[in-house]
């Protein structure tokens, strides 16, 4: 009966479902079908002939490697730093953008903050290396102006992780704020109108209307982001890495790239990716259920 | 809902069957009576018109000169790291007949997908005659890759107008000791022959590998595994000689002679710093790369800036780092699955013949060279763009005399020096079971070495590094080296 109802609904709104179809095909082809390839983590891959089942061999090698726990530690630290310091920025940015009353100026601000998202990490690395150059980089010029000594951020083990956080912020804050801006636009204007009649200030409207209305979106985005927790940013780290800071920013993805991809050990790389994915799933499900219990809101 | 779920799973399985089908394919091969040879080569895909023209000329030449009727089918490799993309393609089961590797070949050879070239070379007409001693040794150890090129040692260069202005230049050329190199670097920065330039004497791209080409052997690091007095081997990077070398690099860094920003330099920013005069000396692969450096330098700063190739530093020994003879670092391989292995090798052998060499070394007539008054006149396009895709034996002679040489004077000098200081290394291919430990050990070295050079750690921390290196797998690998180095 339920199935019949679903088909009736699809028939009724077939145009909408037709529009959904390309996205569905994309996800099935590129995200669901490759899941079958996960079995490679338990096999030795042969180009010609059948793969050989080797059980947990690749996981044992992975967990017995001394470097693995170092890169795992780096991945967790960098991801946590990004989660704590970067996650709130797009929310704050969207709240600020919405406060810009002049429409043309708001569009200008939005374009400027979205722009870095379209640059590749190769270009961004070049920009940041120049910006942080101890001799004539902009940041050090400002430091020198305030009588502070120049710092070589790119080769300093104490600073490089912060470089990752801030460069990520610079690149993605604008783009990530779009989803919050859309959510803010959806809030009923009558709420603000009523608040203004009651004499609420802009700050109070933000505090008591916008933020509570955004909670659902924030929780959903947070939980979905947790799924990518173990992706500390391959392209970013790869382009900003140098020999001096290897031990603090070598992450799981760069390690897998060197050992697994460049050495053609795809089964090993798959085992590491599966491990990463598993942690992501645990984090998403765990947070979803905790959030459901505490706030009543989750991903579904 | 359950039915929809079942339907979805069924769709998924159908998709997976389609996706899992057809693992290794050998593409079909007869077109218009011609044998189709599939070729994968870096930057020489079907979207490259020069590559298309080159292989089309090769088809005609093969038919005319050798009666070999083939059609080349070039395979496009996606943009990005060639070794990575190529291996992904090969691992997906698409294996062309002729494959150019630039790393990543070992994993393919381990799967028995590359043909042992020894019997082919033995019965070849031309290839066996142009093999260099290091090619023979590499092929003995690893018979899957063919790459007959001049030694790819890296040599240091400085612009000639600056070099001639310095009083320490002559002494450096006559007696290139570490001290004389130091004096030369010091004077280069202090006298600033470029009017406030250069800011530093030498720069390298990202790590000290290039600097090692100048100094390593002078510090006695003449092989990867150094023989000690008791006859056992120790890893050179964990030896006292390495400590002395790092101490010297630290001195260069502290005095601003080594570019303070070398860690964040890439090959392009390194070259830019050289042409702009920010740095005095850079290190480049002998031959064509030095030719390109020279061309760009004279284009930007005039003919008087023609490069001078510097000799390797002299000390306990002298040379541009020992040459690895375990295997060719890159080269052409033939697929063991190919139906036309003999034909592919005949093509390679033709490319090693005088006629094949004319085609490969000189490019296209009326474009890269012209024949005037019975002489071959190379065009600017040749110098700017053309490079031999296959072999470059050193004793190549054209059928007609060349009006201008194939390489500029500094480039030829760099090749001569590389040949003069040729020394063999005793390194070996790291066994698969040590690969992940080796990665960790190398990273440990890189970080300690960088920290010592940049002064973030005292030189005495080198002992700490040796201990950590041994614990990370060095001890095990040293044992392996002692058991296996003959």
What does this structure look like?
The complex is a heterodimer of chains A (300) and B (486). The model of chain A has no long low-confidence stretch (mean pLDDT 91). Chain A has 2 domains: 1-55, no CATH class; 56-118 and 172-295, MetI-like fold (Orthogonal Bundle), CATH 1.10.3720. A two-stranded antiparallel ribbon of chain A has the order 1-2. Chain A has 300 residues and is an all-alpha fold. Chain A has helices at residues 2-12, 14-32, 57-64, 66-86, 88-99, 103-114, 121-131, 138-145, 160-185, 189-197, 202-226, 234-240, 246-249, 252-262, 266-295; strands spanning 43-44, 52-53. Chain B folds into 2 domains: 30-150 and 328-398, D-Maltodextrin-Binding Protein, domain 2; 154-322, D-Maltodextrin-Binding Protein, domain 2 (3-Layer(aba) Sandwich), CATH 3.40.190. In chain B, β12 (369-372) and β13 (375-378) form a beta hairpin. The model of chain B is unreliable at 13-28 (pLDDT under 50). Chain A: The chain crosses the membrane at residues 14-36, 76-100, 112-131, 177-194, 214-234, 266-290. Chain A: InterPro entries: MetI-like (IPR000515), MetI-like_sf (IPR035906), UgpAE/MalFG_permease (IPR050809).
- Beta-strand level of the residues of chain A, as a percent range? under 5%
Structural class of chain A: mainly alpha
CATH topology of the largest domain in chain A: MetI-like fold
Please give the largest β-sheet of chain A: 2 strands, antiparallel
Query: So how many helices of chain B?
Result: 20
In whole angstroms, the N-to-C terminal distance of chain A is: 23 Å
Largest sheet report of chain B: 5 strands, mixed
**Rounded average pLDDT of chain B:** 90
Low-confidence runs of chain A:
none
Count of domains of chain A: 2
